[in-house]
Amino acid sequence: MEITGKLMSKIQATILLRLILVLMLVCAVNFVANSQTQNLIKESDVLVFAEEMPAFPNGSKALIETIVKTINYPLDAIDKKVEGKVHVRFIITKEGKAVQPSIIKGLLPSLDAEVIKAINKLPKFVPGKNSGVPVNVWYALPISFKLSQ
Q1: Alpha-carbon distance 27 to 119, whole Å?
Q2: Residue 137 gets which letter from DSSP?
Q3: Where are the alpha helices (DSSP H) in 39-74?
Q4: CA distance 116 to 135
Q5: Under a CB-based contact definition with an 8 Å cutoff, are residues 62 and 71 in contact?
Q6: Which of 8, 32, 85, 119 could anchor a disulfide with 142, C-beta 3.0 to 4.6 Å?
Q7: 119 close to 89: Cβ distance less than 8 angstroms
Q8: What is the C-alpha to C-alpha distance for residues 74 and 82, in angstroms, rounded to an integer?
Q9: pLDDT, position 54
Q10: What is the CA 29 to chain-centroid distance, rounded?
């Protein structure tokens, strides 16, 4: 079977179009991956201590109340009667945002996930400062889980 010139041109055009679409998809995936990693704050840019440490609006008690209101005790943890503390750390940015939470010591994946979710929903803090200049500061909390009797 002989392929005519017009049919060959259509086949080449289809192949070229598919290659362009694949290339566009690869570029889009790389763009998304790069933009997500560019938003991460490097550990070397975060202080453990600042002259003025970050503060939650209305104080520590309000911080705990806010977290407690956000957390739902997962059913699997209730069924297994899991109690204890999840230790979490996160960064309070120069802008006062709580970002990049990570579990230092967990209890159960579902409890750990609830803590991460709660930290990600926190409102802005008053940022930490050195010499009056806002800085990124690590913040750590133990979050207690206790089943009611």
Answers
A1: 32
A2: E
A3: 59-70
A4: 22
A5: no
A6: 85
A7: no
A8: 10
A9: 97
A10: 19
Chain position carrying tokens 């070397």: 44
Spatial neighbors of 147 by CB under 8 A, at least 6 apart, are 73, 78, 81, 83
Separation CA 110–CA 72 (nearest Å): 10
At 141, list the tokens.
């909390």
Count of alpha carbons within 13 Å of 64, Cβ hemisphere only? 8
> Within its chain, how far is the Cα of 124 from the centroid?
15
Nearest to residue 117, comparing CAs of 76, 78, 86, 79? 86
70 φ/ψ sector (left φ>0, alpha ψ -120 to 50, else beta): alpha
Say which residues have a Cβ less than 8 Å from residue 84's Cβ, sequence separation at least 6.
Answer: 107, 144, 145
Which tops the pLDDT comparison, 30 or 88? 88
State the pLDDT at residue 36: 46
Token look-up 């009611």 returns 148
